[in-house]
Structure formats: C-alpha cells, structure tokens
Design goal:
Elements: H1 3-34, E1 36-41, H2 48-57, E2 65-70, H3 78-83, E3 91-95, H4 99-102, E4 106-120, E5 140-144, H5 150-162, E6 167-171, H6 177-186, E7 189-193, E8 203-207, E9 213-220, H7 226-241
Parallel strand pairs: 1-2, 5-6, 5-7
Antiparallel strand pairs: 3-9, 4-7, 4-8, 4-9
Amino acid sequence: MTPAGESIYRDAKFLFEYSRRSIESARKAADIDSRTFHVGTSLLNPAKPFMDLWCQVSAEFPDYRLHLVPFEDNHEGILSEISQLGEKFDFLIGVCDSKLWLDRCNMLPLGRYKKMVAVSKEHPLAGRSRIEIEDLYGETLMMVKRGDSDTNDSIRKDLETFHPQIQIEDTPQFYDISVFNRCSETGKVLLTLDCWTEVHPALVSIPVNWDYSIPYGLLYSLTPTQDVRRFVNTAAENQKIEGTAHLSHRHGASVR
C-alpha cells in the first residue's frame, strides 16, 4: 500500500468507527426519549398533582423518567396547547369540565376542587375566614362566560335565580393571569378555586358556605401511545383501589 493509500485507509477506519458510535448514541438517545413522560405545567395547571400520582404508580415504570414542559396560561392560546397533547407533552393535570377542552383530549378524573372567591387584600371581605353567599350581595362577581362549562353555568343559574343581588361580570372563557390582575385592580370579586390560592400575591382566597366544586384530572391525547395508555390504565386502577374515580372518557370508560 502506498503512503497515500495508508492515509486513506486510516481515515476510512476512523470514519466507519465514528459512524458506528454515532448510530449507537442516536439509538440510545431515542430509547431514553421513548421512556420519558413529558408533563405540561403552568401557573394555573401545575404539575404537582401529577407528581403525587407518579409517586403512587412509579414502581410500575422503573425505567421511565419525567420531563416537565412549561406552557403559558394564555386564554387565547390555551386550546392550541391542549391540542398538542401527545406532541408537545404527554400529560397535564387540568381543572376541566370545558367542552372545548374535552373535544381535544381524554381525561382521567382524579378529584374535585372547591369553588371559592378571591378579593384584593384591601377589600372589606379580605379579613374573613369564611363567608356566606349573602355577603356577596352588592358585589360584582367575575366568572367565565356562559356556554362551555356545565359547572360554571349551573353556578351562574343558581346565583341569577336565587341571589340576583350579586352582579355577574363575564371573564374570558379560560382564566389567565390577566383575569387575576383585573380582580386585584378593580376591587371586584373573582370566582376561583382552592388550588389557586397562591396564584396572585395581591389576592386573598376565601371559602364560601356553598357546595360548588369542579372536576380535575389527568389530560392526555385522543390518540395515546402504548406507554401513555399503560400509564393511564395503571393510574385508573390505582384510583379504583383507593375508592375514587375509575377510568373515564367523554365517550365511555376505555382508553383509546
């Protein structure tokens, strides 16, 4: 072999070995990614309830890891985020009986959050540890507009029928931080949830003597992967064992 040939041979051996290692690294990376659950998280839809669920069922997924994917609670863009379940992330925990949301995803119910009200720290009700509905007479209550949430529509109907002394003001269909800012800046009352007590530092959340609540659960794609289906089924069985909600879907009781 000539010196030139030896040089080409050495370089060729290096290239073949480098190519082999690159392919092996890519395969390992793909394998790791396939064993990663991507979980959406935001200010109003934090991942902590998912982490609690994960602690209960993670023994069934010893080779899997979690990756948190932040997203914005933008009332104009939230439906786009929900539509990306299965692409941008595999799961998120959401407060949800929204028809618009549930047209775009599956949901495994996990529980319910109590409805509360939030007021600015300067509001006359801010110092109260609990209030009656009658304490809201003369106030303006901000809540999502009618038509998408059966729970909120039922609350609105009750208030309009039995407590017309409470003025209702529509907010966008889905809350974002701008809604909480408006409550703080205007001195109005905001219909909120017990899971959102720390969302806005200038607001105080107060329990009300009523029985209103809304479901929350594990949201996932309408066309879940095999790994996602297995996780949902495992979580559903765990919920069943604990005597809580079993697997639910807007069209039935099986995971698609």
